[in-house]
Specification:
Layout: H1 8-18, H2 47-58, E1 66-67, H3 80-86, H4 89-92, H5 104-121, E2 125-130, H6 133-148, E3 152-156, H7 161-172, E4 177-181, H8 195-201, E5 206-213, H9 223-232, E6 236-241, H10 252-255, E7 259-263, E8 279-283, E9 296-300, E10 306-310, H11 333-371, E11 376-377, E12 386-390, H12 394-402, E13 406-407, E14 410-411, E15 422-426, H13 433-444
Parallel strand pairs: 1-13, 3-4, 3-5, 5-6, 6-7
Antiparallel strand pairs: 2-8, 7-8, 9-10, 11-12, 12-15, 14-15
Helix pairs in contact: 3-11, 5-11, 6-7, 8-9, 11-13
């Protein structure tokens, strides 16, 4: 059946009006080699057949019994209250809150989200509606370019490689040059970004230095020194953080970060086979007018009643193309609400307990594997809740364990050839002593 409301006669009149003979003529500028000749759709199915097919496809998803996988997405306990809150119809079905008089609930939830992110990061203002940590980081780099009126950025290779790929895509359009400063991945190295190397890469044409804390390898970067190096060159520091770590580590606002971004997934959002997630962004108040994303402010009406509104920017700011602070921000309010509900549910002490559990168990993993003679730490220096461990035939042994329902970390050689036979293992509060013992036993049985 056709879903077009137009008749053949109406289409013919429209084609005549624009001066073409057929709809196909409208695509003459598209090379034939890349044109789709058909979608290859299967024949129509009944509802019962569709349900059966979807069930078959869903059954292909493999949920491992035990997982030490991190590398940017982490398994955490999501309190039941989070699902209860975001499942309420007034939140689950709400549209972008352009009309404040009918959107006070959604606007207040975003306002509370922004307030919590400011408290967590030690920054002065936060925005909402970023897709994920990678896009928020790319938006932050472009924001720094606008603030400094410079068009080159320095990026530590300790930044998540997926973030770096997204950053390159974002910067390709406006012609922003990316200069990479290598993390110390040498044998016995720190796995971090040396401040001296950053200083050499920085200069009066650099808009910002982008560094991750903890970095992709789980190592703790010298963020204060990197901030000093960036500011010494008149550049900004974009700190990409892991939000749970902020319950233990120094907040970015304290060590001089100018813009802070993060992946909000660890805050009450399941891994969900890759999304949807929510990006976090916070900054200093003097740069608020260049912040992309939505900003909700609190005000009072003519009757002195407290109210919430989108502030400092109009809806059109996000669709004016070259004049917009961003063209890709969207309504991530439901995921932001999940993060808000999670932070309120666990509270400061609960978040600290989650962070302590992860750091404790990852050290248990490293110690157990080293004691068994199965692996050794790849880098020196402090780390948070992930550790890079070198072991013989690491990737092959990981694949063998995967077939048995266990994910033994992330193979770092996928992104860095110098890190062959090195696995990145993560731990959270869901990692148990029994799981660590089973990992040791499984690796011992897989030479």
């Amino acid at each position: 059946m056709t879903y077009s409301p137009h008749t053949d006669a109406e289409r013919a009149r429209m084609l005549e009006a624009i001066g073409v003979g057929s709809v196909d003529d409208l695509f003459d500028d598209v090379p034939p080699a890349v044109r789709a000749t058909g979608f290859g759709l299967p024949p129509p199915l009944t509802e019962q057949e569709v349900r059966a097919e979807l069930g078959r496809l869903a059954g292909r998803n493999r949920v491992p019994e035990i997982s030490f996988l991190g590398a940017g997405v982490y398994r955490h306990l999501v309190p039941a209250v989070v699902g209860e809150v975001i499942g309420r119809s007034e939140f689950a079905t709400a549209y972008t809150p352009y009309q404040p008089e009918v959107s006070q609930g959604t606007l207040q939830s975003i306002y509370e989200f922004q307030s919590l992110i400011c408290e967590l990061t030690g920054m002065e203002v936060a925005s909402a509606s970023h897709y994920d940590g990678a896009t928020a980081t790319a938006e932050a780099a472009l924001m720094a370019c606008r603030l400094t009126r410079r068009h080159r950025i320095v990026v530590s290779t300790g930044l998540n490689p997926e973030y770096r790929r997204v950053l390159r895509t974002y910067c390709s359009g406006p012609g922003v040059e990316i200069v990479e400063v290598p993390a110390d991945l040498a044998e016995g190295g720190s796995g971090t970004t040396h401040a001296d190397a950053a200083r050499q890469a920085l200069g009066d044409s650099i808009a910002c230095l982008v560094a991750q804390q903890p970095n992709f390898y789980g190592q703790l970067e010298p963020m204060s020194e990197l901030a000093e190096a960036a500011h010494g060159a008149g550049a900004q520091l974009v700190a990409v953080v892991e939000p749970v770590s902020l319950a233990l580590l120094e907040p970015p606002g304290s060590y001089g970060a100018d813009i802070v971004t993060a992946e909000g997934q660890p805050l009450g959002i399941p891994a969900s086979f890759g999304g949807p997630y929510v990006g976090l962004m916070a900054a200093r108040m003097d740069s608020v007018r260049q912040m992309p994303g939505r900003l909700v402010g609190a005000t009072r009406d003519v009757r002195n009643q407290r109210g919430y509104v989108l502030t400092l920017q109009a809806r059109e700011q996000h669709i004016r193309r070259e004049k917009a602070a961003s063209n890709i921000c969207t309504n991530q309010a439901l995921c932001a609400l999940a993060a808000t509900a999670y932070l309120i549910a666990v509270g400061p002490e609960g978040l600290r307990e989650v962070a302590v559990a992860g750091t404790t168990q990852v050290r248990h993993i490293a110690a157990a594997l080293e004691a068994a003679g199965l692996a050794e730490r790849r880098f020196t220096g402090p780390y948070f809740a992930e550790v890079a461990l070198r072991m013989p035939r690491a990737t092959a042994r990981r694949e063998a364990l995967l077939a048995r329902g266990m994910v033994a970390g992330y193979p770092l050689e996928r992104d860095e050839a110098a890190l062959a036979d090195t696995l990145l293992l993560a731990a959270t509060e869901l990692t148990t002593d029994d799981q660590v013992e089973r990992l040791v036993d499984a690796l011992q049985a897989t030479p």
